[in-house]
């Protein structure tokens, strides 16, 4: 009996050790599986953060939204009645300054208008809305793309001129964006433009809009209203206000566009007549510095 009992005890002990070993293996497997799940969750979170950061802080043309570019069609086709209702700008900063010794620049047999800005710049962001609206009355843009000013500099929805071209029977328009949203070099000014920029704008401030005879350093549009439209639908909100001339910024942007149009009309000799003799442009023309 003693030998039999010892054998049974030994067998039970072996079974208990085997059961314990199986339990430990199961626990290790469960821990490993849990760790794997956590790793996957962290990887997904990091990937989402990187993706979101790229959208928000990206380079030229990145927007951080699926808003697309449909809003551009509205900005380039503001109704004439809306421009006329906006009239002349009330902010003196929107009026280009007379350039001492300035003269009309020409390119391709047409008067030339120059813009120098950067994608990170919030004042450039606001001014581009008016430039696009105004110049669309004289010609056609291609390649405009949505972007924002830098995240830490307003994050204002706007468009970029980086890949754009402009065609007009009346005017040559050249634009450069010198840095992207992350303050990295983007486009280099050609020698002739760089010389004009340094001569007439020695402080190097942007945006800088140059008509040869006149210049507009900075933007003539109040910035604060734009800061209320930095959400994913900001582009559409701004475009809708410009289309109607209503809201907290529609009229000011359209009035600034009238000022730009009046300055261009001085270069083109009043052409096209339907634009240059319109009530909104005529009102702004009274402010053109002689």
UniProtKB/TrEMBL annotation:
Source organism superkingdom: Bacteria
Keyword Membrane: yes
InterPro entries according to UniProt: DUF929
Keyword list, A-Z: Membrane, Transmembrane, Transmembrane helix
Transmembrane segments: 30-50
Protein name: DUF929 domain-containing protein
